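Record pair follows.
FIRST:
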Amino acid sequence: MHSQQFLNIDRLLSQTVFFWQFSAFHSSDYPWRTTHENLSHWLDGLTLAEVQELKRVPEKLTQALSAFIPEVNDLYTLSQLEQLQAAPLVIPKGLDSGINGRKWQQITSLSALGIQYSQPKGQWLEWCGGKGYLGRVLNVASGKPVTTLEWQDALCIVVKNTLINTN
């Protein structure tokens, strides 16, 4: 079931690649401005409050976008998976410093499931690790070593300075 679901998501993402695979900070405009004028006008007309509401309620965002990108409905439906449950992690106080609530919830949920389904021996590889928050939680909660890879120098410097100041 999940393999067919993945293939369907892949197909729909390939069909809509024009809307999401572009360099956002290399252009001051939407790449689809001339081909999808109605979408561009709708996006330009959104207020900050409307954007915040659409971020908070994905169903509203899906409904609104489907008027411009019909595949959005199927993508949303296919991306709804049953939520896996894992035992809560025991994490020392303060490890969440600098991490907002939603991101912290995602990190701890992913870590708990990763630990639950991981091999007893081995280590973790954190790819595009940013500031290494996920890796730190995995290390503390599982006791396994973590190798974090990050290519952005600025993030690596932040982590290095954080580690120097806490040791």
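SECOND:
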Amino acid sequence: MACTDNVMRALFLLALFCVMHGEKEESKRIDAKASGPGGSFDITKLGASGNGKIDNTKAVQEAWASACGDTGKQTILIPKGDFLVGQLNFTGPCKGDVTIHVDGNLLSTMDLSQYKEHGNWIEILRVDNLVITGKGNLDGLGPAVWSKNSCAKKYDCKILPNSLVMDFVNNGEVSGVTLLNSKFFHMKMYQCKDMLIKDVTVTALGDSPNTDGIHMGDSSGITITNTVISVSDDCISFGPGTSKVNITGVTYGSGHGISIGSLGRYKDEKDDTNINVKDCTLKKTTFGVRIKAYEDAASVLTVSKIHYENIKMEDSANPIFIDMKYCPNKLCTANDASKVTVKDVTFKNITGTSSTPEAVSLLCSAKIPCTGVTMDDINVEYSGTNNKTMAICTNAKGSTKGCLKELACF
């Protein structure tokens, strides 16, 4: 009988502990939420530690689950501190509008085993009206893993995690934050509509492979303004299916400049159209404004209604470049077999200096020449002394007005 009593007493105490623990966890969740309309979820009140050593993935995911599950305007607060996290998945749709306010530093774990295959670091899926803002950093800690990137040697290489990926996100905003040293791309948008990227800084060390700044594909209504990008690959790139894009007031400190493409690598790619780039400065970039398509492109697609205006080059290489013979690592299977059409492209008021004699290179396909290319007030001069400013134009048709005579292709 005494034994039975002891067992019953133990079971009672265990049940009481479970109830109290559950109440404590719920209290912690409620504690993290501020009063007032909508709410605020501070990750430190959900157990996160800003010492840069403890894995805070669970706390951040709990904050997302709570914020996304509540109606009204919700805020997830990343306060000052260094918060180490693994792979984060912010999945919608949400009941209300969520803002992620980053004052501190989110650090991406260097343990690649914590990322699923083809996984990204911060992945946001099917969330409308999302805002990511603040003065903090999204630090990919890329230097620890860049040596594992084999993409310079293999056509189908293993992709390292991208830092911030937004898929099927509409009416979103990213502002104020700094993205730095991503393991692969810093920011990617796929199937996004009506997005605003403003006052953002994107930076990676000079020897970082494939650290593209901002890439988008199958997206429309994208605005990028007042942003600074300094990386080791494309600063801003437009993949297939990109339309209605406006880029203004962006400074590019290094990298491969502004690229449409690369295009045609895969089957069934969609057209790029209505892309406008204005009032930008490129400093010592490897390319300036560029359109590139694979020489052995697998897709039939068109690039049209592209407008570059008021672009200043400061010792950038290859300032104006259309490349229909793009073939990285010399792995293309056919020569001059591109199926990509380029038409109605305007270069207007492009000024400054080039670190290469070739200030203009229009390398179009003999099979499908570039047409409707307008060169208006192009005044870019070679900054060296061992050669002269020149243009190389093949299989391109268009008009020239107010350009340096050396750069008059037509």
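COMMENT: The longest helix spans residues 2-32.
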